[in-house]
Design a protein that fits this description.
Oligomer: single chain
Shape: globular
Strand order of the largest sheet: 1-2-3
CATH topology of the domain at 87-189: Lysozyme
Number of helices: 6
Largest sheet: 3 strands, antiparallel
Number of strands: 3
Order of helices and strands: HHHEEEHHH
CATH architecture of the domain at 87-189: Orthogonal Bundle
Helix content: 25-40%
Amino acid sequence: MGQTNQTRTHGDTPNQPRRWRSVNALIGSIFVGAAFVVSLWISPLPNPRPDAAPTPTMVPANTVYRPLDASKPATQTTVPQPPNGACGAWAGYALGYGWPATETPQLAQIMRLESGCNPYAVGDNGNSYGLLQIHCPTWVARSTYWPTGWAAANGYPITCNDLLKPEINLAIGFLIWAGVPGSSGGWWNWTTYRP
C-alpha cells in the first residue's frame, strides 16, 4: 500500500488550523513592516567615486549668502530679538541673516526641536550651541581639514560661545544649509529634520 511520505510546510498544508495561518500572516506582515520602516531611516551613502555627479541639495540654485563681519557688534538688524520659545518670530528674525522666506516654516520647526527656540541653549554634552544647536567641533573648531576652522574659512572667525549670539548662530546655520564649501547643504545637517 503505497503510502508516500511528503514533507510539507505550514503554508502548504491544506488542513492547517486557521489560527496558524493567521499567526504566519501576522509574522510575515511584521517582517515586511519592519523592513519598510528601516528602509525609510536609512539614507543612501554618498558615492565615493570622484567622477560621480554631485549630490543635489535642497537649496535653491540662486541662493546667495553674505557673511556678517564677526568683529562688529552682533546687532546687525533693526528688528528686536524675539523672546525665548517664540519659534515663528525667530524664523522671521532669521530673514535678516540670509534665510529665504520659503524656508521659515522648516527653520522654525528645526529650532523648536533642536533648542526649544532658546538662543542660549547648549546641548550635545556641551558641543552644540544656540537656536540651531550648531555642533562646534564640526563647524567652528580647528581640524586637520580646516586649520582655521570651517566657520573662519567662510568669513566667521568665531569661538563656540559666539554661537550663543542669535545673529551669528543663524548666519552660520544659513551657510551650513546653503551648502558653502565644506557643507553638503540642505536640512540633512540637522538630525531633527524629517521631510
